[in-house]
Write a structure and sequence with these properties.
Layout: E1 5-8, H1 12-23, E2 28-31, H2 39-43, E3 47-48, H3 52-57, E4 61-64, H4 69-77, E5 91-94, H5 100-111, E6 116-119, E7 122-123, H6 125-131, E8 134-139, H7 142-153, E9 156-163, H8 167-195, H9 200-207, H10 215-225, H11 235-252, H12 257-271, H13 283-290
Parallel strand pairs: 1-2, 1-4, 2-3, 4-5, 5-6, 8-9
Antiparallel strand pairs: 7-8
Bound molecules: NADP nicotinamide-adenine-dinucleotide phosphate.
């Protein structure tokens, strides 16, 4: 018999991931702080839990996907938290992107009562969550990873065990360093092209398939040229992840001068009220410096 699953946090990511577990045939109990967000999944066959502790009491494996480090702490260790309902032998899998250091501490606290934990942050956005095509980076014990695989494969296409507790979070932050580096390079390139008087679409056609190309340039440069700021990934989440990167780099001693600068640029965009826009709206920080804007492509 497959393990009974609990899911805590049915936001943009969590609701798609939970729906895929139901589709795969798992017995699912869900909880969300805002209760209305559970209704859709309950209509699809999930049970409703009364609290994170209640979900844990009814589940063998408890999945979490909430916003930030203090939020994971609240649902794990708070008054009605998972810790108060989980039985020895249970497994917690945290899909949120949070601090690697705090993750190791949470794993230790759960381990003290015989509960295992994997950190398993994801990339692939809301589309990947809905389609079950996420990339999932997993840290923690190898035997618990094997146990979790059938569950993770119902939600992700690329599932990789990257090391011990906290390693999944570290690799996710590595991913974010690359994302924002590519994003700033794209934004500077487009500003430089326009200032140099060349046609942006022709520039894009000439170079996007070459050695300077990237997923970011291929997918987001056309959005910038249309001044389309709809998010795949929001500036608010990007700023949060870069804060986690800077904290972790401070602890490990890795020099990240470029990422530190981009972090500050994202902060200025939040201050100006752009937090809900896509991370490619980073170009607005350069437009503010330059005093000119990318002109929307004709047609
Ligand atoms: P979201 O739509 O804002 O949802 C956040 C979820 O966390 C909601 O269910 C929210 O409950 C819950 N939550 C927040 N604080 C809580 C607390 N203190 N106690 C209990 N529940 C709390 O965010 P999301 O986009 O799904 O992101 C979730 C995680 O996935 C984040 O760590 C994010 O960085 C990561 N991620 C997101 C994406 C993406 O493209 N969106 C991609 C990769 C990774 P309420 O409904 O009550 O607010």
């Amino acid at each position: 018999m497959s393990e009974r699953i609990g899911f805590i946090g049915l936001g943009i990511m969590g609701r798609g991931m939970a729906a895929n577990l139901l589709k795969a045939g798992f017995t699912l109990t869900v909880w969300n702080r805002t209760v209305a967000r559970t209704e859709e999944l309950v209509a699809q066959g999930a049970h409703a839990g009364a609290s994170p502790a209640d979900v844990a009491a009814r589940s063998d494996v408890i999945l979490i996907c909430v916003s930030d480090t203090p939020d994971v702490e609240a649902v794990l260790l708070g008054e009605q938290g998972v810790l108060h309902g989980a039985r020895p032998g249970a497994l917690v899998i945290d899909h949120s992107t949070i601090s690697p250091q705090a993750t190791r501490e949470f794993a230790r606290r759960l381990g003290d009562v015989g509960v295992s934990m994997l950190d398993a942050p994801v990339s692939g956005g809301s589309e990947g969550a809905a389609k079950g095509t996420l990339s999932i980076m997993v840290g923690g014990d190898a035997a618990q990873y094997e146990r979790a695989l059938p569950i993770l494969r119902a939600m992700g296409k690329t599932v990789t065990h990257v090391g011990g507790a906290g390693a999944g979070q570290t690799v996710k932050l590595v991913n974010q360093v690359l994302v924002v580096g590519n994003c700033l390079a794209m934004c500077e390139a487009l500003m430089f092209a326009q200032a140099g008087g060349v046609d942006l679409q022709k520039t894009y056609d000439a170079i996007s398939q070459g050695a300077a190309g990237s997923w970011m340039f291929t997918n987001r440069a056309p959005q910038i040229m249309q001044r389309d700021w709809r998010p795949g990934f929001t500036i608010d989440l990007q700023e949060k992840d870069l804060r986690l990167v800077m904290e972790a780099a401070d602890q490990s001693g890795a020099p990240l001068p470029g990422t530190a600068l981009i972090f500050q640029l994202y902060r200025t965009l939040q201050t100006r009220g752009h937090g809900a826009e896509g991370n490619h709206a980073l170009i607005k920080a350069l437009e503010n410096l330059a005093g000119f804007e990318i002109e929307p492509a004709a047609g």
